[in-house]
Amino acid sequence: MSETKSYTALSQLLDDLDTSCARHDGSTMGEVVEALGHSSFGPLMLIPALFIISPFSALVGFDSIMGVLIALVAVQKLFGRDHVWLPQTILKLKLSREKMAKGIRFLRPVARWTDKVVHPRLRRLAEAPFSRVIAAICVAIGISMPPLEVIPFSNTAGAAVVSFMSLGLTVRDGLLVAIALVLLLIALGFGAYHFLL
Predict the structure, then answer these.
(1) Is residue 88 part of a domain?
(2) SS3 category, 95
(3) Are the CB atoms for 180 and 168 separated by under 8 Å?
(4) How many CB atoms lie within 10 A of CB 49?
(5) What is the pLDDT of residues 26-73, one digit of tens each?
(6) What is the pTM of this model?
């Protein structure tokens, strides 16, 4: 079992994914988990969320699988597990080298930007007990993704919130977590306003 990895930049995480993909001529989800570390809850929520924002989301059923993966990782974070368990059906999912490389290339400009502005600060907001609250929110967003997949791009906003929160957890950036919470509240308020009209 791989040990916990510490990331200070999104580009480092993408480098690990790229290396894993090149080594295995494509990757299974199990190999992705191994590359990122079984105890790396933040990265293991971040990557599925980023993939939903990437061209991968055009694949039928992809958002649902990634939503379930986010929820599975987040619920284990919520209940304080020290490493991530995933079912074999998810671990055996295969991502081709070409599609992985395309997704990573798409995310590289995002990584270059975030690496300049994201860094450890307000650490207490990215640690327990606040990290449990973040996990609970990510569980709720993850389980909402399968039913919402029938509406094109409906999961993009949720994936963006999960990305902000999980990146904040990964690099211990509490300000990023706070921004994600504000964006979530705005989105919920906006949705409630239109629902009541």
Answers:
(1) yes
(2) strand
(3) yes
(4) 29
(5) 678 888 888 787 678 999 999 899 888 877 776 778 889 899 999 999
(6) 0.83
